[in-house]
């Protein structure tokens, strides 16, 4: 078997500045690239010291093949927080929760909780409505 990892995953954004502020300032990820202009920006962020792991924040409607009905569905799903999501790992969920919660761009969905299946986690929504789960590892 090869040594395979996840290099990049994508999440949509609707306001690149608000998403950038959340991922950089609240979560603490470093900005790796920021290309495009206006709302048509592709921003890559990732954990400090981990250049092999990236999150690509992208405009959800950049593909010209998206039909109007699909655009409405995506917009509705983003508003409900069901379109994009990511699970992050932390060695101190409570400390990271406190830091992220203090940032104005973070919407708390669930405070740190010991789940019945043996995991301690919490959840936020970023400015685009993406669910960000943070799990103790």
Secondary structure topology:
Elements lengths: L7 E5 L3 H11 L3 E8 L2 E7 L7 E5 L9 H13 L4 E6 L2 H9 L5 E8 L5 E6 L5 E6 L1
Parallel strand pairs: 1-4, 5-8
Antiparallel strand pairs: 2-3, 3-4, 6-7, 7-8
Average pLDDT, rounded to a whole number, is: 93
Count all strands and give the number. Answer: 8
Q: Which structural class should the secondary elements be placed in?
A: alpha/beta
How far apart the termini lie comes to 25 Å
Taken as a percent bin, the fraction of beta residues is 35-45%
Order of helices and strands: EHEEEHEHEEE
Helix % is: 10-25%
Q: What is the helix tally?
A: 3
Please state the overall shape, judged from the principal axes of the Cα atoms: globular
> Spatial order of the strands in the main sheet?
1-4-3-2
Q: Detail the poorly predicted runs.
A: none
Please state the CA-atom Rg, rounded to the nearest Å.
15 Å
Main sheet attributes: strand count, strand direction, barrel closure: 4 strands, mixed
Describe what you observe in this structure.
The chain is an alpha/beta fold and 137 residues long. It is built from three helices and eight strands; from the N terminus they run E-H-E-E-E-H-E-H-E-E-E. The chain has a four-stranded mixed beta sheet with strand order 1-4-3-2, with helices on one face. A four-stranded mixed beta sheet has the order 5-8-7-6, covered by helices on one side. The radius of gyration is 15 Å and the shape is globular. The mean pLDDT is 93.
